[in-house]
Amino acid sequence: MVILAHSDKETHGKNIPLACLVFNAIPEQTRVFWKEEEENVTEGTEWKAGGLEQAGRTGVLQSHIRVPTQEWTDGKTFTCVVETKSGLSKNTTVAKKGIAQEGHYSALAFNSR
């Protein structure tokens, strides 16, 4: 699992885009969602599966969220949570205060099987 966030130089406008990439995931067995602080985010999210046209195939799941610039600037935390039908649960959290210079990514090994 990797979360991608834009650097300060790229943060313009009303929203900051964040992306969570989950590798080796089976879409029909995997749930990906976001939390702001400890609350589930239900608005402004979207997800897609890349290269997973056939059922049961693994690939990359992408979940995107647009965070209001003020919430990002205030240092709120945003967490990408991945859960599988087999009971595995992984998450990784990002916040502006944890970003170094040009950008940020956080990697976490994850296998949905």
UniProtKB/TrEMBL annotation:
Residues passing through the membrane, by range: none
Domain of life: Eukaryota
Domain Ig-like: 1-95
Protein name: Ig-like domain-containing protein
